[in-house]
What we know:
4-stranded mixed beta sheet; 11 strands; 2 domains
Amino acid sequence: MKYLLIALCAMACAQPKEFEVASIHPTPPQPPGTMSIGMSIDKGMMRATGMTLKFLIEEAYDVRDFQVIGGPSWIGSLQYDINAKVDGEPTDEQMRTMIQSLLADRFKLQVHRDKKEMPCYALVVGKAGSKLKAPEMDAEGKPKGSMSMSRGSFTGQGMPVKAIAHAVEQVLGRAVIDKTGLTGTFDFKLDWTPDEARTDGEGSSIFTALQEQLGLRLENTRGMVDIVIVDRLEKATEN
C-alpha cells in the first residue's frame, strides 16, 4: 500500500500544471475581411490567433459561451495571439488546467462556479426511434472515437449521445440535456443548412435534420445549467 501511494503521488507530481513558455500579444489590426482566427492544441503546444478572453475561458473551463457570465466589457471583443508550450503530451484535462493557470497568471483571472436556471433543450428519441448506427471498430476491436465539426455538419465515430448534445449546444447557444436514455457509443453524420444560409424555406434546419437523419428531436424545457462567473479579469501582461 505504501508503494502504491508513493507511485500515485509521483504520477500526480509529474502532471504538468503550467506551460513552460508562453508568449501573449494583442492581435495586430488587420484589414477588414482578412482577420485570421483559430486555435490549435497538439502535443503540448497551444497556438491561438485572434482569440477573445471569453473564448479562452470557455476552453479552459470546458463550457459554452452562454455559460460564461460577467467580466469587463471587452471580454468578448479584445483579441490576443498566444503561443504556449509544455514538454510531453498532456491530456485534455491537463491542458485545460494549464490554460486556467495561464489566464490566472497573465490576465489575473478569478472565477467561481455556480448553477443558474435557464431555457434548455431536452434531446429525446423521436417517435420512429433512433437512427444512430452501431460503431465501426478498429483493428483492436475498439470504437474509433473521433468527432469533427464544420459549418452545417458534424460527424462522429464511436461517440456517446452526449457528444451530439454538446455539438448542438455549440450551434444553438443553449444548453442541451441528453434525455434519450441511449447508452454506449455510435457512429453518426448530421448535415443541416445554417439559418443564415436558408432562403425561401430551402434546406433543413438542425431541428429537422436531427429528426430525419438521427431519429432524435429537441424539446423546449428549463433546467439548472453549470455556469462560470468571472470575478476578476485584467488585460494581459505582454512578453
